[in-house]
Amino acid sequence: QKSLENARTRLRQARIAADLTHTRVEDAIAQAQIAANSARTRLAEVKAGSRNQEVAQASARVEAARSSLRLAKSNLTRAQNLANSGAISPSDLDAAQVAAENAQAQVNIAEQALDLAKEGARTDQVRLAELQVAQAEQALVQAQSQRAQIDVAERDVRAAEVSVDQAEEGVRLARLQRQQVTASERDVQAAAASVG
Question: What is the pTM of this model?
């Protein structure tokens, strides 16, 4: 009876361990799959470069910066003429000069941003994204290889089930033997009573 209870306890423990192993492994695989898909998506985005809309926005910023530069240059020319006639102070002329220089800097920045948008990703960005895909796929393979742990846990459950079956059979046989002994003892008593 004690061995049957021990076998049933081992079976319960094996089933719990198998359920936990299954859940842990399947969750790890799902997370690794999500990470691999995310890395692949990022790589595709890096390789694709800027979207047409991003290039169009960068181009519009260049045109806006050039318009501001034209206005700043026009204001500077006007300020120079007024300064030559003494109508404005030298500091007002300096302010117009600074505004024109700032407008030129904004054009340069916008043009560089447009060039980057047209050029797309740098080689090192693509390589980094490729490495991230490779790492994510390796992690997925490792997570999938843990499925063997599920098989081991399921074999443990089957072994525990066999132990329970054997223990139950042992208890059944012991009961049968007890019944046979009891029957034999009654036969002996009956025989002794008939002799005696």
Answer: 0.49
